[in-house]
Amino acid sequence: MRRQSRLPLLPLLIGTGLLGAGMLAGCASTGEHERTGAAAIETAPQRVTEHRGSDDLLTAGLGLDGLRAMTPPAFADAANPTAAELRRRAIWSNWRGIADLSPGGGYGTLYGSVAAVPGREYSALARLPGAKQPHRVLVQVPDAFDAKQRCVVVAPASGSRGVYGAIAVAAPWALPRGCAVAYTDKGAGSDYVDLDAGIGVRLDGTPGRLGEADDLAFAPEVPAGAKGVAFKHAHSQDNPEADWGRHVRQAAQFALSALDQAFPQSAPYTFDNTRVIAVGISNGGGAVLRAAELEGDWLDAVVAGEPNVLVEGHGSRALYDFSTEAALLMPCALLHLPAESLPQPPLRAQVEPLWQGRCAMLQAAGMVQGADVAAQARSAYDQMRASGWTDEALQAGALSVGFDLWRSVAATYASAYGRHGIGAHPCGFAFSAQNPDFSPRPATAAERSVWWSDAAGIPPGNGVGIVDAKLAPPDFTLPGLQCLRGLYAGQGAAADGVRAGIAATRAAMPRAGLPVLVLHGSDDGLVPPAFTSAPYVAAAQAAGRDQVRYWQVRNGEHFDAFLAFPAYGARYAPMLPFVYAALDRVSAHLDGQGALPVDAVIEARGRGTGAVEAAQLPLPR
Fold first, then answer.
1. Alpha helices in 334-372 (DSSP H)
2. Phi-psi region for residue 468, left (φ > 0), alpha (ψ -120 to 50) or beta?
3. Burial letters for 76-87: b for 16+ Cβ neighbours within 10 Å, e otherwise?
4. Sheet of 440-441: strands edge to edge?
5. What is the DSSP letter of 35?
6. Which residues are known catalytic residues?
7. Which end of the chain has fewer CB atoms within 10 angstroms, the N or the C?
8. Longest C-alpha distance within the chain, in Å?
9. Residue 62: how many CB atoms within 10 A of its CB?
10. Global pTM?
């Protein structure tokens, strides 16, 4: 329809090895609404589930009220939830982790949709050639899929989230329009392995024993005597970030095979006759930009929100570089800013003594100058400003300090970049269920049962904590953070391995002529645009990619979900309305209904003490 025809999809994928174990199978699956896969291509099962009536694709039947509920959907048996219960809870958790669903936030009224969408889900484990571990792929096919205007929206998970990690990003826009949505956990996700019990996570989210279940989403090499918790992002030994683009493309390929099964009367579905748009935020935004550089015209457009992306030059900095810098310096630097300029949490009165202690330790280590806290804070602040941080990013970054996100990111990514296995972290970090004194202990069955549905993909959280072998008073986390920083700025084989892993994640320019719309909040304190989006756009436009556009959203930060905190909702604007608007614009452009939008600075603002109003979310013309 749009391009010259290519080889039939399934034979091509099988012949090149792109359909790894678990991509398609005819083995019977379980569950109330499940049926057997349509074709016996591989030996591991593919699940096909139906979601209608009291269930649906978009909210698992919860609706807006159910998604807003403060307590998650309950399990009939806390230690043995069913696959259907786990799915519902995973959808609840991932919606709440991404979107601002607070009553005054405007979701479902000013923007977004939670209307019930009946349909089917196709899920499998895909494996890239040469990868040690699979990544999850899942396709939602609405009953109202428009076979005459064939559309697939590919949505890699944000952060390190599981396969539903982008449901709030793509599904509210795509499913009501009759498009299918293809998801991937892009080699990370919440498939935690309990090393003490020898239990991992099966394709349907239920537990399975290592060495026995043949459909585990993560089955790592486990050294003798290993204890605690392993997870895919840290311990797969694949450096998944280097392959994010290929994960996205493989999810798109799986979507076409799922559509062949769902609608055999209108098959085949190919890249020639099916529109494919990729959308993602944060790490998912970085993933779709990596997909944009891949050869072939399989992809029609890209929308990347607040992307974690690294390019050559133009002021670009790697996430690991600026996160380890922030982990060390930001607690001290924030003391230089007026207390009223920082949103809460964290509560300034509670954390200020800890931040003052960090200043003293940094001064003793020669990392900041000054005879008192005020001078030391100014020294840390000046260093961060000199390396590219803005006041707005520092202010929003206070949340990442308060929730220990910088250490969480650095400990996980150091292991991933260096391709370190279980028990081999170069700074001695590990992960485990913990006692009140933070000492490791075995997890209970009830704790383990919610990891897949509830976890964000990297500890701490959901009963799993960071085990820091270097903890020492008075600033307990500082020695470990100094080790992590040394893996970027220091010498030795471990540092060389981490830097090589980071280099493998550097993005190339998008395919010439591919529409790409990048959007980023000016106040992003986790993935500052000065280090990511702005350099990417500058590099792309300098390379003659005239279809790359950039929306800068004033007062936008990184986490819509935290706008439910009054201090954050008052000052920051949500980003999802602009992601949906960007999808509207690129879709209209592909339909021939207008040019791509021009670069724009969008004067959005927070809601103050009231509810969000349309005037606070102006859309560019």
1. 348-364
2. beta
3. eeeeebbbbbbb
4. 440-441, 430-434, 465-467
5. E
6. 282
7. C
8. 77
9. 22
10. 0.93
